[in-house]
Specification:
GO terms for molecular function: acyltransferase activity, transferring groups other than amino-acyl groups. With 184 residues, this protein is of the alpha+beta class. The protein is built from six helices and eight strands, in the order ββααααβββαβαββ. The chain has a single domain, classed as Gcn5-related N-acetyltransferase (GNAT) (Aminopeptidase, 3-Layer(aba) Sandwich), CATH 3.40.630.
Length: 184
């Protein structure tokens, strides 16, 4: 099911063989807390602490509300990654408009960045690759986007393997941050 609702430009839900990627909802705060709590040591070296650290459920509800605001303002699109068969929360994936230097509102962007994370017990099963492939298809359909980027820490070999698998090319490394590009 692909529902396009202006001004979002992107689907509220994406389905793959094993996954449901859908926009975060306030009721996802408790499962998000439960996914982050055992995954802090796994995530903290690689993603911003504001994402990796579990917060009290009311703070996570507020965070998820900010995600909805970002969609409405066309600054970012974020989905939870759920197992299609069980509905279990596996992680999150996002699409951020960028220019050559930073994240910008979509109307000022010439590229987009895909970010992703998985809970510690969901790694090594191909879920991140499957989710990124689905979001890459969305990104490539966006107007005025010349290419798609994935940025990951050079020391994070499992994360860097994903853009390689999906045909991205290593464009540059900036202070341990690898930038991978894919034509839109």
């Amino acid at each position: 099911m692909t529902e396009l609702v202006p001004p979002e430009l992107v689907a509220a839900e994406l389905r793959t063989e094993r996954l449901l990627l859908r926009r975060w909802r306030p009721e996802d705060a408790s499962p998000l807390h439960d996914a982050l709590a055992p995954s802090v040591a796994h995530l903290k070296p690689w993603i911003p602490w504001t994402v990796a650290e579990p917060a009290p459920v009311p703070q996570l509800e507020a965070r998820l509300a900010r995600f909805a605001e970002a969609i409405a303002e066309r600054r970012a699109w974020q989905w939870g990654i759920f197992a299609a068969d069980t509905g279990a929360l596996l992680g999150g994936i996002s699409l951020h408009p960028r220019d050559a230097h930073t994240r910008v509102p979509f109307d000022a962007a010439d590229r987009v960045e895909i970010g992703y994370w998985l809970r510690v017990d969901a790694t090594g099963q191909g879920y991140a690759t499957e989710a990124v492939r689905a979001v890459l298809a969305v990104a490539r359909a966006l107007p005025h986007v010349s290419h798609v980027e994935i940025r990951c820490d050079a020391r994070n070999a499992p994360s860097a393997a994903i853009p390689r698998r999906l045909g991205f090319r290593h464009a540059r490394t900036l202070d341990q941050l690898m930038v991978w590009e894919h034509p839109a």
